[in-house]
Amino acid sequence: MSSGSKLFISFFIGAAAGAIAGLLMAPESGEDTRRILKKKIKKLRNEMEDAAESIGEKAHKLKDSVLGGK
Fold first, then answer.
1. Torsion from C-alpha of 27, 17, 15, 4, nearest 10 degrees
2. Cβ neighbours of residue 37 under 8 Å, at least 6 residues apart?
3. How far apart are CA 11 and CA 52, in angstroms?
4. pLDDT of residue 70
5. pLDDT averaged over consecutive 10-residue blocks of the chain (70 residues)?
6. Which of 10, 33, 40, 56 gives a 20 to 30 Å CA spacing to 50?
7. CA–CA gap between residue 3 and residue 32 (Å, rounded)
8. Exposure string (b/e) for 8-25, b if CB count within 10 Å is 16 or more?
9. What is the rounded CA–CA span in Å between residue 70 and residue 65?
């Protein structure tokens, strides 16, 4: 498993653990908690999409450098 994959998986596990801890310790009402959780999930999804795009771009550059731009 590559270090990029390990980093991505670690980030995802950490984000999930943080979300669960936040739910368990939330002082807000259920409705407020769901609203906050939806916002955080949307932000996390955007960050994951950006990370995946960045990894793809880096992989493409690496492929080009290894193959000599072919």
1. 170
2. 19, 22, 23
3. 12
4. 56
5. 76 84 76 84 88 88 81
6. 33
7. 37
8. eeeeeeebeeeeeeeeee
9. 9
